[in-house]
Amino acid sequence: MIKEKKCKGIGKALSFNGCGKLVNSNTRRFGLCMSCYPKFILETEAGNIIMRKAILKASKTRLDFESKEREHKYKSELKRALSNTKTIVHSFVRERDKGLPCISCGCSWSETFQAGHFYKAELYETLRFDIDNINGQCFQCNIHFDGNINAYSLNLPKRIGNDRYSNLVKKAELDKHYDAKYWDLDKLKEIRVTVKNLKNAIQNHY
Hints:
This protein is mainly alpha-helical.
């Protein structure tokens, strides 16, 4: 059985008298009936404070939700951009190095050649899409021999030249100063545009 009590302010509404009518506990807020409660909220300082806090809390909840939604959307876009950039860069490397031997073992070019990193992408984030750091490599060297790095290091200066090789080494040394948030959408778009132009130049040359 629901207990009935007189409509009279309690707690934060202690100073508000209410109408005194008997009301059950399901229809009471701060000891007030549903007719007196709005008056307390709108007409008293204590009620105004409660209302402002409720509005702020609701606004914060909404803003937090919107912020998380924006963050989630951005992360999804960034993930897609990273994947698209990888596809475009690796496609360019295979086109650029078509006909050249494997950067590591020197075996003859094959359609199965992959885009192999000298400095591993998972360890050197800033060199993930550096086209001097990525070269045509056979499946055996790239996968089974984990990049065959010793041979790669001997042949890479011959492939890109000593100056570009030295610059690549310097970039790798600087990489430790960057964190996993190095990439953003604009930076990735710039890489895609540059590499697409380079690929078009190669195709037009032929």
